[in-house]
Amino acid sequence: MQGLPVRPEALASEDVVLLVTRAERLLSRRLREVLDAHGRSLDEWRVLSILADGAGHPMTEVSELAFLPPGSLTKLVDHLADENLVYRRIDAMDRRRIRAYITPRGRTTHERLTRAVRAVWGELAIGYEDSGRLTDLLRLLVGALQHR
Predict the structure, then answer these.
(1) Quick check: 41 and 83 in contact, CB under 8 A?
(2) How far apart are CA 64 and CA 74, in angstroms?
């Protein structure tokens, strides 16, 4: 990224949308391959990543952050709970809400999977500085889109 000239035609929103979409699809494909080798899905890794902060999250929030419909998330969390990777509890402040939490076994699994995911990122040879710039730009984009 750094050192590459910016072409005026590359600033067209269609180009940005296509590039972001293509990058997401290609990266997801590669991550699925790696996670499949560990017996896990991309959605499972995403859910474990959301819960990895240990705070516990409402299922509605996990659904939104993982881009999963509520019914699909419930089935996925049921599966992860059966494997003792996550558990659910009624929210102490709002008994109508269910919160999901990661277990110690889930944390260990998440750490192992995240090492594999980071190795994929390392294979890309983007470089530390450009990786940081890309992260910053994507956060800006996500922030702008979330507030629309």
Answers:
(1) no
(2) 13
pLDDT value for 9? 59
Q: Give yes or no for residue 1 having a pLDDT over 50.
A: no
Query: Phi/psi at 109 (nearest 5 deg)?
Result: -60, -45
Q: Could you give the C-alpha distances from 19 to 6, 33, 57, 137, in angstroms and in order?
A: 14, 21, 32, 14
- Tokens representing residue 134 in the block: 């890309």
pLDDT of 88 over the 60 cut: yes
H-assigned helices in the chain? 13-37, 42-51, 59-66, 70-82, 104-123, 128-146
**Could you read off the pLDDT of 28-76 as tens digits, one per residue?**
999 999 999 999 999 999 999 999 999 999 999 999 999 999 999 999 9
Residue 49 identity:
S
Distances (CA, A) of 87 to 1, 4, 46: 42, 47, 16
Name all domains of the chain by residue range, CATH numbers in brackets. 42-120 (1.10.10.10)
Average pLDDT over residues 78-86: 98
Q: Which residue has the tokens 């889930």?
A: 106
Kindly report the CA angle at 22 between 45 and 134, in degrees rounded to 5? 75
